[in-house]
Amino acid sequence: MATLLQMSPEAFIRFLKQNKIRRFHFVFNFAENKVIPSHKVLQPIADFLMADQRDFDKHEGIFFQITNKHDALQAGFVHKTNRGNAAGGTRFWPYRSMEDFLRDGLRLSKGMTRKNALAGLWWGGGKGVVAQSENLDIHNQEQRRDIFKEYGELMSAIRGVYITAEDVGTNPQDIAHIFSETRFSTCIPPALGGSGNPSEPTATGVIRGMEAALRFMDGGTIEGRTIAIQGMGHVGEPLIRMLLEKGAKKIIACDIKQENIDFVLKSCGSDRLESSLVEIGDNSILFTECDVLAPCATGAILNPDTIPRLNTKIVCGAANNQLEDGLRDDDALFARGILYVPDFLVNRMGIVNCANEQYGYIPNDPYKLRHLETEWEHSIFHVTFKILQISREQGEPPAHTAIRLADVQAEHVHPIFGHRGLDIIKSLVEDKWFEE
Ligand code: NAD
To answer: For the chain, which ranges sit under pLDDT 50?
Structure first.
């Protein structure tokens, strides 16, 4: 029999049902320094977490359920709540095995701790994962409604220790369904009091990162530069528009969808924009001779195959997890003398835009705009410049530096609520939330 970790989400759901388990958790007991599962039969997963050297990092808690309708496997990953309850989006994605499912949630929630801490947000790090298993029809709107309403119920059941948002595979309608069952969701539609689409602020954040890197490199600006962009989607479009406005000499961009290219050409076509349609898997844009390369499509595109062939001075883009293997590929870029601006530093505006929704909406909100300023100590420009400086002075690749700084800031506890997430988790365990 396959181990629990080798099982597909579908097989794992069958296993849970045979054992009459609908909700369950894994919680880190700091006093005993071990992961405690809610059910004995799940001990092999707790053992896997304890043995893992790569993605598990004393995550405070992971909370699961299978939905009553449609049997969807859903989880909220809580990495660290020193700075506040765990915040981050929910990914709706297919997974081959439970190990893949767990690793994605562990890695992404830890990434959110770092992103939020470096942004100076008073939120901890968390991530949601919902498996797109074979029994689900992702195009069926009624099914999506049921699945995400039940995800909202999970958020309420875990008492707000994790606060969800939109991510890859989820859309504003899904979030509205979640919100109908819980207050612990952000990124809700503007009609319900939410913050709306973050793509334009995200693009502005990427530009601030580019400007800091260019100033650091040679004291210059965007003006007169050649910029290559992979992906002309929600972030790529405003990015191209704003770079042209800032006097870029040439933009070379590509996408795998003609309609997205057409949309960009319509909104900001220019003789300084060169665009092309590429096949999925065609990464030739990465090897374009340019001043700045901006990955704005998918992750893991910087790896031992591509890094030696890059023809850029700076990499700075919105795509999440650009480095296939964080520290290894950061080392390789550094060795080549390419300035890498960590993605989790410059693409923060997605979470900045929605994280504080419950504090009310102000057009041109100063608490958001300061992230795009030059002087504020946590602004994208300021932190990018500082990280590149430390990196050069200490001979340390910049993602290493960014992680080091983020991990220090992630230890700071919320000035009002302290480390309340741990108290919520303790109450969940004591009250056996999974039996409700
Ligand atoms: P999107 O889906 O709107 O755009 C991505 C674009 O890339 C699409 O047009 C797609 O067709 C294209 N694409 C996919 N694979 C490609 C390939 N191999 N070559 C060329 N083009 C390809 O997504 P988005 O909202 O623009 O986000 C872009 C990236 O930035 C994603 O990795 C996302 O996770 C990240 N990000 C976005 C935000 C945000 O506010 N939207 C915030 C943080 C991070």
So the answer is: none
Minimum-distance ligand 1 atom for the alpha carbon of 347: 43
Pocket of ligand 1 (CB under 6 A): 168, 198-199, 202, 230-236, 254-257, 260, 278, 280, 296-298, 318-320, 347, 350
Residue 1 is predicted with a pLDDT of: 58
Pocket perturbation via mutation, ligand 1, pick of 298, 345, 380 by most ligand atoms within 8 A of CB:
298
CATH architecture of 199-357+364-396: 3-Layer(aba) Sandwich (3.40)
Q: What is the CA radius of gyration of the chain?
A: 22
CB neighbour class for 134 (10 Å; exposed up to 12, middle 13-18, buried from 19): exposed
CA of 33 to the centre of ligand 1 (A): 39
**320: CA distance to ligand 1 center in Å?**
9
pLDDT (tens digit per residue) in 145-197: 999 999 999 999 999 999 999 998 999 999 999 999 999 999 999 999 999 88
Question: What is the separation of C-alpha 242 from the centre of its chain, rounded to a whole number of angstroms?
Answer: 23
Residue nearest to atom 39 of ligand 1 (CA): 199
Closest ligand 1 atom to the C-alpha of 235?
Answer: 26
Q: Cβ(371)–Cβ(346) under 8 Å? A: no
Look at the alpha carbons of 287, 290, 294, 296 in this order and tell me if their dihedral is positive or negative.
Answer: negative
Contact 151, 130 (CB under 8 A): yes
Domain 9-195+423-435 has CATH 3.40.640.10: no
Q: Is there a catalytic annotation at residue 127? A: yes
Output the pLDDT for position 393: 98
Index of the ligand 1 atom closest to the CA of residue 321: 32
Residue spans in the chain of domains classed CATH 3.40.50.10860: 9-195+423-435
Q: Which of 80, 110, 115, 127 is catalytic?
A: 127
pLDDT at 395: 98
Q: Which residues contact 7 (CB under 8 A, 6 or more apart)?
A: 15, 97, 98
CATH 3.40.50.720 maps onto the chain at 199-357+364-396
Give the Cα separation of 338 and 293 in Å (integer): 10
